[in-house]
Amino acid sequence: MGLLRFLASAALAACIPKSVDALLAFPGAEGLGREAVGGRTGSVYHVTNLDDSGAGSFRDAVSQSNRIVVFDVGGTINITSRVVVSKNVYIAGQSAPGDGITVYGNGLSWSNADNAIVRYMRFRMGRGGDSGKDGITIAEGENMIFDHVSVSWGRDETFSVSGDVHNVTIQDSIVAQGLETHSCGGLIQTEYGVSLFRNLYIDNKTRNPKVKGMNDFQNNVIYNWGGGGGYIAGDSSGQSYANIINNYFVSGPSTTKTAFTRGNENFHGYVSDNYYDSDKDGQLNGTPLCVKASCYGGMDIVSEPFAYPGPERLMTAPEALEHVLRSAGTSFPSRDSVDAYLVDEVRSYGTKGQLISDETKAPMNGPGYIAGGTKPADADGDGIPDEWERANGLNPNDASDAMKISSSGYANIEVYLNSLVPSS
Ligand SMILES: *[C@@H]1O[C@H](CO)[C@@H](O)[C@H](O)[C@H]1NC(C)=O
Ligand SMILES: *[C@@H]1O[C@H](CO)[C@@H](O)[C@H](O)[C@H]1NC(C)=O
Ligand SMILES: *[C@H]1O[C@H](CO)[C@@H](O)[C@H](O)[C@H]1NC(C)=O
């Protein structure tokens, strides 16, 4: 694609507000992927077992379009081959009983899975996954939002958005421990936009992330990147237009390079109050980076922010760090042992942290135990518990009300799913 075409479309995305009535994917959805519609006009699919495939499995659930996927069971779903997600699928991890859901053993593709909504899900690839593949791959498609997702142990990249991709948001998520020898956080390179807000990038040797194209990077925390570097600014002859605002970079034991590297005159960055704590002294005592190309890996620093749809409530970098450590990743109903371990590493502020090559060995010892729990009573089997139906004027014996659109614009089951978790 030519530069002019890119500039024109970037300007379009930046300047033309979306229609005022467009509904957010869920309250608290932000950034370029915030209007993904998920399965709103489709039907409810219940995941009823932890099997790798077959009726009632997660793989079967996401294999068809126009679904809101709810979980009647909690626990670890072990997948052998990769899972490919269809268009217009909302995966509602917050519906699962017990400790929620972990998908372990291989990676997933959302390529061309337009209008995806994914909330409160753990995706842990691991050594058993396909060599040369990512934890999560998006190579094409538009309008996708990932919220409170935990992704780890990619064999190539851990979470990669690269190619002809439009309007993706990754928010309040953890991208962790790309496996050695590649050990990458992820390529985030697309000419049509990825918003990254309030995420934790941790324990990747490099690409935390590597950014190219149109990108909005705000309130993220980056910890213990390795010798490949933290934020990799383009390193390319392609043009990039990025906001880099109020992020916190903290060096860890594996860190040997400065926070920003490999920028050049093609990478145009608006930068503001990005903190860097480089001394590994066990205290959080970072200070804002200087607003000069020399502090930002040699990128072209621009004076006005790009007009991308930013976070509703921009935090300072220190506030963002506290927020991310408190709630990023699959923090509802509670963090699993992997995320708890990672957050503890960050809280050491420089003294703990390591790159790993085999998640089944110490220190991680696998994906941990995820309790199954019991699903609440749901007489009509529509995915909304009886108690909630009664309290909210629905009929617990009428399965058709789940997908009816309420006055809020959301399907009733979405109103229920939204009510389970905080909206910011
Ligand atoms: C992406 O979002 C922008 C506005 O934020 C919109 O103008 C554009 O049409 C969207 N692109 C696609 C492919 O949906
Ligand atoms: C998946 O594998 C883990 C160990 O890696 C095991 O603890 C868990 O029980 C398995 N889950 C199922 C549903 O078999
Ligand atoms: C993090 O990501 C990089 C680049 O993808 C990869 O080389 C590395 O092995 C990952 N993990 C660590 C701990 O380095």
Descriptive account of the structure:
- This protein has 424 residues and is of the alpha/beta class.
- It has a domain at 107-347: Single-stranded right-handed beta-helix, Pectin lyase-like (Pectate Lyase C-like).
- The chain has helices spanning 3-15, 58-61, 317-327, 337-347, 386-391, 412-419; strands at residues 43-47, 67-71, 75-78, 83-84, 89-92, 101-104, 108-109, 116-119, 122-124, 136-147, 150-152, 159-171, 174-176, 187-197, 200-202, 210-218, 221-223, 231-233, 240-245, 248-250, 260-261, 267-272, 275-277, 287-288, 300-301.
- The model is unreliable at 1-19 (pLDDT under 50).
- The longest helix has 13 residues, at 3-15.
- Bound molecules: 2-acetamido-2-deoxy-beta-D-glucopyranose (3 copies).
- One 2-acetamido-2-deoxy-beta-D-glucopyranose binds next to α1, β10 and β12.
- Residues 157, 177-185, 203-207, 226, 228, 355-356 line the site of one 2-acetamido-2-deoxy-beta-D-glucopyranose.
- Residues 1-22 form the signal peptide.
- Keywords: Glycoprotein, Metal-binding, Signal.
- It comes from Monosporascus ibericus.
- This is Pectate lyase C.
